[in-house]
Amino acid sequence: MRRIYLDHAATTPTRPEVVEAMLPYFTDAFGNPSSIYSYGREARGAVEEARTKVAELIGARSEEIIFTSGGTEADNYALEGVAYANERKGSHIITTSIEHHAVMEVCKFLEKRGFRLTYLPVDKYGLVAPDDVKKAITDKTILISVMHANNEVGTIEPVEEIGKIAREAGVCFHTDAVQTMGHIPVNVDKLKVDLLAISAHKFYGPKGVGALYVRKGTRLVSFMHGGEQEKRRRAGTENVPAIVGLGKAMELAGQEMGKEAERLAYLRDKLIKGLGEKIDHIRLNGHPTKRLPNNVNVSVDFVEGESMLLNLDLEGICASTGSACSSAILEPSHVLLALGLPPEQAHGSLRFTLGRKNTEADVEQVLEVLPGIVARLRAMSPLLKTQK
Amino acid sequence: MADPWSLYSEKVMEHFKNPRNVGEIENPDGVGHVGNPVCGDIMELYIKVNDGIIVDAKFKTFGCGAAIATSSMVTEMVKGKRIEEALKISNKAVAEALDGLPPVKMHCSVLAEEALKSAIEDYLGHQKLKKRT
Hints:
The complex is a heterodimer.
Chain A: E1 4-5, H1 16-22, H2 38-58, E2 65-68, H3 71-85, E3 92-96, H4 101-112, E4 116-120, H5 130-136, E5 141-145, H6 159-169, E6 172-176, H7 188-191, E7 195-199, E8 210-214, H8 240-278, E9 282-284, E10 295-300, H9 305-314, E11 317-318, H10 334-338, H11 343-347, E12 349-353, H12 360-379, H13 382-387
Parallel strand pairs in A: 1-11, 3-4, 3-5, 5-6, 6-7
Antiparallel strand pairs in A: 2-8, 7-8, 9-10, 10-12
Chain B: H1 10-17, E1 30-36, E2 41-50, E3 53-62, H2 65-78, H3 83-86, H4 91-97, H5 106-132
Antiparallel strand pairs in B: 1-2, 2-3
């Protein structure tokens, strides 16, 4: 059976060009970048070249880039690093109610450690109001963290406006750009951010590597203690092949992003339109236009997400849901609840995230298969009857 | 490539793909409604009883794969059983009949047991009323 992968927000396949660029650094060019002989210098050169590529694409200086093990580490480092470096200045942190767990759980952790957190609400499309950020700032505020785009519903936040507010107030501003990097333009000066987290495997790079942009002059306590790598900010021998892969993925994204985003947005809109035409009682989650070019998130009334996913998988289609039937807490996605969805609609959510290999035929296949699945599940749903 | 269904046993998937006894019973002798939208599982179980024996059982379920499979299995297990035997069916028995459930899905089997008990209690309640009148 032909498999159709529509979960690119979860992860993407590593591009062959990226793998090819990485390969020499496992074997022939295996040196430790901290060594002074030729093998070491070779590896050091590759790491610094990758750093330049990352910096160039986001409009930063290479010395402002710290390599990490991925997006989660970059977010953890940014939040904890700033919080503990500014303890004397204040203990108030502003974030949103729709952040990825890599930010949200750090905030909860810091809250337990005595920091005061403000979780800003979002509107029904998932948008944070810059004015809410402005109002939340006090003289004790040391950090604002607002994601660039949401991983579940694809809403692109007004980061630039919030950056302006943060800068005027003199508060450090972090954004989780894991979902936008490599997909839409990301420029640290335009967005006015001081910290920005990225992850390679979300844009066809390898897993296990990411980066944190740290604007020059931003105070941060070290996250990983040990050797002197990354200017003592992140100790540990560099993951050279993965860092090279990240650099290559950035380079390719820089060359192809614009055209690809256009192509994906066309497929996205075709899928959204088709689902609306073929299935009744279905709604789009997230913003209709301020949304990632590859994100489709819908709630299908009267049916539960996992049962739709299992049926789609039987047809070879891989997607995702905000239903939490398989998580221990049983509560549906905090993002969908923050958008104001009632729990049953949050449980009935489906997310399709398109990618490079997807074609119009893939979209047509979803539109061919999903209506039947929904009809079958609705026939056994006790919710439908109570609505009649 | 790992088995994509390693989360669920073959039997769970079989009942998920071809659920038995889907639907409602007209003029049922007992109905059980359990679950809530917050946890994402809602089950309705209908029974028809003749001379103290459950002669038919049907269900309607909003929920995940395990919720649908346990609903299907519990309706299969109760058919032909006496009321007092049916009351002894535990969630573990339902899960075992499906060759096990992942730990995070055990609550679905609890829901299936509760749906059955609720339907039987409904039936027994009607019986008491009948005796009084």
